[in-house]
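Mods, move this if it's the wrong board.
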Amino acid sequence: MTNFFDGRKIIYLFLGLILLTHILILSKLIYFPYPELFIYPYLTNHGLKPYSQIIDQHFPGLMFLPLNLDNLGMTTPEIARIWSIMLVLATQLMLFFVGKEIFKSNTKAILVNLLYLFWQPFFEGWVLWIDSFLPVILLPAFYSFYKRWIFRTGLLLGLGIVFKQVLIPLAFFVLICFFWKDEKFKVILRYLSGLLVPIIFMVIYLLVIGVFRDFWYWTVIFNLTVFAKSGRGEIPTLAHLFRVLLVFGTPFLILRKIRLTEAQILIIFLTGALLGLSTRFDFVHFQPALPFAVLAFVYSLGSFNKSPQAYQAWSGRLKIVGIFGYFLILFWWLNIFYKGHLGNRVIAFDSQIKELAVKIKDYTTPGEKIFVFGREPHLYQMSETLPAGDVFVFQFPWFFQVAEKRILEGIIRDQPQIVISDRTTEIENQKITDFGRTIDQYINENYQKIDNVGTADILRRKS
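Not the wrong board. Structure tokens:
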């Protein structure tokens, strides 16, 4: 009986309870798997070339490579939710393992898991996007760096960059760290060799399929010009900033331990992962940095105990007050969060979208070319159709600035029999009939309504 209640078994019991609770929470929240994760792999597997015919600004990851989410089986929102849960469970297990290594304490490691349980759903953990995949790459990279497995560190960071280019600053910070510590050239070379392996394979693949020039334009030039001016999204409110400051500001108390190797590595990974927010401020983009934020926060709690003796009593009281305030705010925010996010709604996959997909199937044959204007782009995937003109782009204003003419030319060339049009759509307060005016005019002149689902009209080409 005594053995059953030993400390290690209790810790593992707590870990199991945390994992089960996390599964339950994610299964009860509303859910939003980004449409890109469905439509891009689908179109890739149906012969369209990424960046040349499938216009996008992200590195390929599991969307555009031969091994992608579509042929891995993630083709419905139900399967996507399972992916989300598995990614979070893997992150939790990695956090416990890494926490044990850093803190040399099972209790502190469990505290990290508990904080991740609190904050992961809050920072749009109910969303599945590229950022959701990054923690399961970054945590092994962090551990490899901590253990001085140099090549493996580079290899994992290179893999992360193939998923999303916002990790380039983090890879650069790690390189600077090697220079700062006066590492031998062979150490730096080993790191760079690992880093470049996934990137070189990606470049070779893009060259072989003949799209590297398009890749360079959309992922570099477009991002630094058109998207930088038009696609940044809304400015965060003070409420958003305060939430971020609590969760991602308090971990920088670890600077009190900056001379320690663990603190230095945590700061590098936390800062590098946060730089990905230079694109847009959506909460889901904080997911890659969140594991390092909770690790750094727990690590920083011990720094007050190292204060000079004259200040230890004062700093101890301050720590108690600070922790009490932290958890008071946490539970207040979580109460508000769960009131607004519990439910069975699946964004972009509601009953109306499913009905529209079924009707499109009724009017088309599998593989037929149609055009979707102002409605969810993954309707192609849901209806087993393809975009007219063999060119696809998300209908955002910043994309249409560059690609609208090409889209229209494709429609005119292929003359699809069926067009789906929703002229009520607005994206970031801009009407699609304004920023897609020429396409809208062509549709109105050449197509007539035969059916509708809600505000979406199903149109057939005039004879």
